[in-house]
Amino acid sequence: REKVDRPASWLGLPVPGALPKLFEYFKVDNVDALKRLIDDDVYPIPVPYDNPPTNDIGCSLAFAKGGEGGAQDERTLTAPGFFEDMTDPALVETFPWPDPEQHIDFNKARELAKNAPEDMARMGIMWAAHFQDACSAFGMENALMTMFMAPEMFQAVIDRITKFYLDCGEIFYEATKGYLDAVLIGN
């Protein structure tokens, strides 16, 4: 409850396509320079998740079926999902759930956290969007209907998604222990 010189600010996580225009406008050539120029207070430390083509923890569960909006790097909540027509909770393990130990680089996570500027709030980015992913697993409309018509199926899927993110978190938070000031987990 101490007075501060100004409200805290955070640039957020601009999409890569926005960076060239931000650099041009602010006359800088990298994100760190931009953050310093605008007095950004937060330094994000993303989970180093290796899953081409996106290499993003937020896109690690490839539920979308092929077709429009179905590519992993352009998925939408309205695209048909892997569990679209399933109602039997026993089928939850038919999805090829990724193993976080094979995709998260423990040493890189530690290095990113250890090398983050100490004069900024160091925020771990564990984009664990449980509900969003559950909707993607069925397709939004089907997810909402499954919640009503086959709640055991929806529960089985969201429980398995939660387990995945808990496993990811265990690796990431152990690697970054003692270095993070805050965490962003999605929804």
Describe the structure in your own words.
The chain has 187 residues and is mostly helical. The chain has a three-stranded parallel beta sheet, with helices on one face. It is elongated, with a radius of gyration of 19 Å. The model has no long low-confidence stretch (mean pLDDT 90).
The residue ranges in which pLDDT falls below 50 over 5 or more consecutive positions are none
Main sheet makeup: 3 strands, parallel
Give me the strand/helix succession: HHEHHEHHHE
E-strand count: 3
How much helix is in the residues? Answer: 25-40%
- Classify the secondary structure makeup into a structural class: mainly alpha
Sheet with the most strands: spatial strand order? 1-2-3
Helix-strand blueprint:
Layout lengths: L18 H8 L4 H7 L4 E5 L53 H4 L2 H9 L6 E5 L4 H9 L1 H10 L1 H25 L6 E3 L3
Parallel strand pairs: 1-2, 2-3
Label this structure with key terms.
mainly alpha; 3 strands; three-stranded parallel beta sheet
What does this entry show, briefly?
With 187 residues, the chain is mainly alpha-helical. It contains 7 helices and 3 strands; from the N terminus they run ααβααβαααβ.
